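Chain particulars:
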Amino acid sequence: MPYTTLSHIPSKDRKHYIPYLLMADEAEMIPAYLTKGELYAILSSEEEIIGVALFIAIDHETVELKNFALIPEVRGKGIGKDVVTSFFIRFKDKNFKKMIVGTANCSIENIAFYQKAGFRMERVEKGFFLKYPEPIFENGIQAMDMIVFEREL
């Protein structure tokens, strides 16, 4: 496996991981969830941080992958899928029944990634990204709606 460990990060140390969280979300949104849930640093075999994953329990059956990011140098190599798969097992062992994740309608790479990782489209939250302070564009498309994916654990 191209990474060796997932390191749980306590709430008091999370501000150091904001640069990684910013790879997947806007700066204005991160304070609302920074100290919630479980944050993990994804470490390479050289013990370097290559990404983060933050999970928040929605209820006793559902956990949300709130923020997931890998540094550009390791993307597209199967690491993300391996990491997410390991979290499927981890949260199933904690008795969760499903995992959800949301991404923008314009995040074509994320949409493909989540489907390859076994998620299925569950719903669309129309206008979700229109409440952000500044418009977001990816792939020449404005982020307007959030596509919510779900995977049974």
